[in-house]
Amino acid sequence: MSNPAKYRQRITFQKKVSMKDEEGNNVTDWQDQFTVWASIKGLRGRDYLIAGADAVKISTRIYIRFRLGITHDMRILFRDKETKRYFDITNSNNVEEKNIEIEILANEVGLNG
Question: For residues 45 and 60, is the Cβ–Cβ distance under 8 A?
Answer without folding.
Answer: no
